Fold fructokinase.
Amino acid sequence: MIVGIETGGTKVVCAAAEAGSPDVPLRVERFPTTTPDETIGRIHDFIRATGAVEAIGLASFGPVDADPSSPRFGRVTTTPKPGWADTDLLGRVATDGVPAAFVSDVVGAAVGELRYGAGRGTSSLAYATIGTGVGVGMIVDGRPIGGDGWPEVGHLLVRRHPDDDFAGNCPFHGDCLEGLTAGPAVLGRWGADASSFPEDVRDGRIAILASYIAQMAYSVMLTVGAEKLVLGGGVMQSPGLLEAVRAALPDLARGYGPASLSSADPTDVLVAPAIADSPGVVGALALADDLLP
Ligand SMILES: [Zn+2]
């Protein structure tokens, strides 16, 4: 058996699958992310209950050090999440003699979507989550970009929408992408989450969020030329938001950029996740499977 673990900022998803079939989780368990001791204890309970484990894949909320050549490989690094800064997550989850892979949660989701979801048949894909925070995992020619906590697309600086007077709530930058579009920014600005906007103000709010997310999408595509950008996370569940991001893109691109972007219709490029439930854990299982001969 192989085990995939996605540790998110609020919940953990553990899954077990047969070696060779990472896209078919046989047993899945979810529990809240609490203290490192309690959370890692529950992960060990899951691994023990799985029986003979041949490999483990771990995709964690970050920032993380996912550079295998770094002495701090496998650690959650500077997170403000209480108790988690500098936690040696991989070291504490890994079991003697069982090979283990370690990536950030967004890279795990990108691997899951590339291999078994919206990116099937492509070799370059980006996965963005716009939820409690904003993060983007990128795979170019089959290889994840970055390792030591980077890239940090969530803090991209964006042009302001003329109708948006919210100052932004990123503790570092105020009105960076995350400070304007993540769940806490939506709630702080409008007192409602993105799925429950009143009908009469919905279109205007969606247009503001879409303008920022489209800027991120265009910047990511210009930088890495990904064949697809998967847009996931809680904020993206808001009805009409994905369509509004697609609609905003041509005005930004103005025909310039990779062929996929300069077309008038980015429907095939900007897509929803195809793995509805935790693409990150499917990616973690796939990376575990890669470790087997
Ligand atoms: Zn920021």
Notes: Residues 36 and 290 are 27 Å apart (CA to CA).
